[in-house]
């Protein structure tokens, strides 16, 4: 793969993988070891979280089709070897989070994928792309579970900052692109569509009442967590990657600004 043709994105737009697609992979150990190594890469490359999480789901019985996707991820890495998570010095300690979900996206069991990311000032400090363990019966159910997961993460981060004697000047801000979810966070009305997430409803609502978090609506086009839940076009992917502060570090000086030759 050293001399492979680089790919612009880790996954092609609209890719759908299933268990048993194609013939069984010939090199089972190679598949597992490569995917295992890619998991370490996601520690500093959040834009790979969704794609690596996807190929991890076929570790038991991978096929040649799944192996092609792994090689696609490697081709993307080959073209972005100099990229990494850029952290810059800043006095801004505002916590800002984005959460999203892709409802019933798995073709094998119809489970959903949720994702979130958290910024401390301008710097990305936490992110997750996760396939849910249970089937959600509605889109609002998975969106609210994703919101509750992000609020729990922000609560922990806020506690950590407090222990470091870095209190927040204002409540953390959470952006969600599902308007119904945003409205429920302020007014948790229980009915047939929401009774399955009653605990999540009251958990988030409690944080909102105590002004420990503020939930707002963001247009889908500006939802940074979108890249953590589904495949997007190459144009969108590159834009989101930049907003997540994944940059070409070879163009930066040791001071963190753009180097001029």
Topology record:
Layout: H1 28-41, H2 49-56, H3 64-79, E1 83-85, E2 95-102, E3 113-120, E4 123-131, H4 139-163, E5 173-176, H5 179-186, H6 198-209, E6 214-217, H7 234-243, E7 246-248
Parallel strand pairs: 2-5, 5-6
Antiparallel strand pairs: 1-7, 2-3, 3-4
Helix pairs in contact: 1-2, 4-6
Helix/strand class: alpha/beta
The total beta strand count reads 7
| Order of strands across the main sheet | 4-3-2-5-6
Shape: globular
At the fourth level of CATH, the homologous superfamily of the largest domain is: Ribonuclease H-like superfamily/Ribonuclease H
Description:
This protein has two domains: about 1-80, no CATH class; about 95-225, 2-Layer Sandwich (Nucleotidyltransferase, domain 5). Helices cover about 35% and strands about 15% of the residues. It is built from seven helices and seven strands. It has helices at about 30-40, 50-55, 65-80, 140-165, 180-185, 200-210, 235-245; strands at about 85, 95-100, 115-120, 125-130, 175, 215, 245-250. The strands form two sheets. Strands 4-3-2-5-6 form a five-stranded mixed beta sheet. Strands 1-7 form a two-stranded antiparallel sheet. Helix 1 (about 30-40) packs antiparallel against helix 2 and helix 4 crosses helix 6 (about 200-210). The chain starts with about 25 loop residues before the first helix and ends in a 13-residue tail after the last strand. The model has no long low-confidence stretch (mean pLDDT about 90).
């Amino acid at each position: 793969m050293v001399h492979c043709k680089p790919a612009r994105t880790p996954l092609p737009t609209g890719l759908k993988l299933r268990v048993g697609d194609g013939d069984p992979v010939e090199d089972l150990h190679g598949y597992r070891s490569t995917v295992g190594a890619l998991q370490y890469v996601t520690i500093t490359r959040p834009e790979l979280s969704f794609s690596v999480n996807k190929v991890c789901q076929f570790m038991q019985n991978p096929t040649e089709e799944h192996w092609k996707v792994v090689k696609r991820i490697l081709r993307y890495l080959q073209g972005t070897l100099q990229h990494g998570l850029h952290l810059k010095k800043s006095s801004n300690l505002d916590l800002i989070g984005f959460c999203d979900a892709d409802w019933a996206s798995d073709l094998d069991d119809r489970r959903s994928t949720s994702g979130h990311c958290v910024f401390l000032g301008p710097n990305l400090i936490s992110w997750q792309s996760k396939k849910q363990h249970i089937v959600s019966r509605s889109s609002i159910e998975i969106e609210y579970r994703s919101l509750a997961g992000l609020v729990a993460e922000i609560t922990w981060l806020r506690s950590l900052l407090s222990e470091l004697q870095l209190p927040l000047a204002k409540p953390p801000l959470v952006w969600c692109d599902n308007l119904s979810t945003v409205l429920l966070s302020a007014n948790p009305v229980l009915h047939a569509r929401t009774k399955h997430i009653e605990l999540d409803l009251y958990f988030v609502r409690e944080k909102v009442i105590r002004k420990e978090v503020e939930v707002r609506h963001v247009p889908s086009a500006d939802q940074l967590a979108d890249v953590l839940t589904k495949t997007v076009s190459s144009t969108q992917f590159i834009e989101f990657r930049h907003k997540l502060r994944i940059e070409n570090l070879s163009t930066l000086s040791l001071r963190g600004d753009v180097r001029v030759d």
